Amino acid sequence: MMKQPRKSKTRCAWADGVGDFYLLYHDTEWGVPVHDDRKHFEFLILEGAQAGLSWSTVLRKRDAYRRAFAGFDPVKVARFSAAKVQALLRDPGIIRNRLRLPPR
């Protein structure tokens, strides 16, 4: 679980006015070096989903992506069957675009 955003922190202008989830992302993740493979994979999945959309849209769906993409376990995602990918296309919690899902 992430910490609550700090109210007195100096922030980038883009982080204001979107919501607490965005402030939390800014305060605890944005610009922070990542050294964990699973976290890198998470950001690859989320960045791929974001292409052409707002980052706030993807962040709102992050929990659904975590569930849909096996906790961002790259080994499990690599083993997704064609049926699993088709099921993802019906998942209303994620952005359902064939180009944003694993190939099959």
Outline the fold blueprint.
Blueprint: H1 20-28, H2 37-50, H3 55-60, H4 62-68, H5 74-78, H6 82-88
In short:
It contains six helices and no strands. With 104 residues, the chain is mostly helical. The model has no long low-confidence stretch (mean pLDDT 89).
Radius of gyration based on Cα positions: 15 Å
Q: Share of helix among residues?
A: 40-55%
As a percent range, the share of strand residues is: under 5%
Q: In whole angstroms, how far apart are the ends?
A: 33 Å
Helix/strand-derived class?
Answer: mainly alpha
Please, how many helices? 6
Number of strands: 0
Low-confidence stretches: none
Q: What overall geometry do the principal axes of the alpha carbons give?
A: globular
Largest sheet composition: none
Order of helices and strands: HHHHHH
Task: Indicate the mean pLDDT.
Answer: 89
Would you write up a description of this structure?
This protein is an all-alpha fold and 104 residues long. The protein has 6 helices and no strands. The protein has helices spanning 20-28, 37-50, 55-60, 62-68, 74-78, 82-88. It is globular. The model has no long low-confidence stretch (mean pLDDT 89).
Task: Sum up the structure in keywords.
single chain, globular, mainly alpha, 104 residues
